[in-house]
Amino acid sequence: MKILVTGANGYIGQGVVRALLDLNQEVIATDFDIAHIDSRAKSVAADIFAIDSPFEYFDKPDALLHLAWRDGFKHDSLNHLGDLYNHYIFLSNMITAGIKQVAVLGSMHEVGFHEGSIDEKTPANPLSLYGISKNSLRQSVELLKRQNDFTYQWIRGFYIVGNVDYGCSIFSKIAQAAKSGQKTFPFTSGENQFDFIDYDEFCYQVASVVTQTSVTGIINCCSGKPMKLSERVEQFIKDNNFDIKLLYGEFPDRPYDSKAIWGNNSKIQKILKEQSNERI
After folding, report:
1. Residue 247 class from Cβ within 10 Å (0-12 exposed, 13-18 middle, 19+ buried)?
2. 70 class by beta-carbon count within 10 Å (0-12 exposed, 13-18 middle, 19+ buried)
3. Torsion of CA 215, 137, 60, 20, to 10 degrees
4. What is the pLDDT of residues 228-255, one digit of tens each?
5. Is the pLDDT of residue 280 over 70?
6. Which of 72, 98, 200, 222 is a Cys-bridge partner for 195, taking CB atoms 3.0 to 4.6 Å apart?
7. Domains in the chain, start-ordered, CATH in brackets?
8. Over the stretch 121-179, which tens digit does the pLDDT of each residue have?
């Protein structure tokens, strides 16, 4: 397959591009900056929102994996709403031009406050500008699906654990603090339970989704089980031998974070099992 990956130079994009290439896919990787994209990919520096005919511009790919998104870790950034129209127009242009498969990275924050397991039927009631915008884009792409013939996949991401210190996640921030010599790190209560997934596994799951077309719709890329935030962060610090201590209670818990929330991973497990069988 020839797969166009947007946002390919980002925190998630870099790992997903590597995973796709390791699965022997042809990758066209695009972003504003292409400095950190795997050299095996065909990298194209571009502003996807400024291209009139992106399907032709990117050499008519078989599939689109849309990872591009600004301020993903700043949940109340106005850029989420400001960019929403551009995301929709880009995806609409790709779809009406004839692309056969579209996969878009979503977020569990689309669901909002929910206790328990999330599946594709869980009602969405987002409580941040980030969640509202992601959910609006999902609903818009689903409308396009009703009007056009293409394979539609909405990849719902959960809490990614990685020690890449240039990212903006809590784990990246702790890595940055530890490597700069800080001995303490201000933290929340850590009592909330979330669905954590290691960075490499998440990237592999995303790559596995887009390299098949039998499982479609909303697909959770996750571990399928909850774990206390404090336990996972303490484990992360121990695994990386960081000399840093968490200062619990320095920050309040976010009011829109659920006490315990995790993904139903039945669809991604089906994908991974089928791919494993194909390799045997």
Report:
1. exposed
2. middle
3. -50
4. 999 999 999 999 999 999 999 999 988 8
5. no
6. 222
7. 2-159+196-222+264-279 (3.40.50.720), 161-193+227-247 (no CATH)
8. 999 999 999 999 999 999 999 999 999 999 999 999 999 998 666 667 888 889 999 99
- For residue 27, give the 3-state DSSP assignment: strand
What distances in angstroms separate CA 241 from CA 4, 190, 236, 237, 245, one per listed residue? Answer: 37, 20, 9, 6, 12
For residue 21, CA distances in Å to 59, 81, 215, 247, 256 come to 18, 33, 21, 41, 37
- 16, two tokens: 């997903």
DSSP state of 252: P
Establish whether 130 is a catalytic residue.
yes
Look up residue 181 and give its amino acid. Answer: G
CA torsion 2→6→10→14, rounded to 10°?
Answer: 0
Instruction: Report the b/e string of 107-119 with b at 16+ CB within 10 A.
Output: bbbbbbebeebbe
Report yes or no: 62 and 100 within 8 Å, Cβ to Cβ: yes
pLDDT at 257: 82
Query: Which residues lie below 8 Å from residue 107, measured CB to CB, with a gap of 6+?
Result: 72, 130, 131, 134, 156, 157
3-state secondary structure of 117: strand
Any idea which residue has 């974070």 for tokens? 257
For residue 277, the model assigns a pLDDT of 77
Token digits of residue 164: 């890449």
Task: Write the CA distances from 230 to 171, 188, 224, integer angstroms.
Answer: 12, 9, 18
Beta strands in 56-100, from DSSP E residues, in sequence order = 63-66
- Which residue out of 11, 130, 159, 204 is catalytically annotated? 130
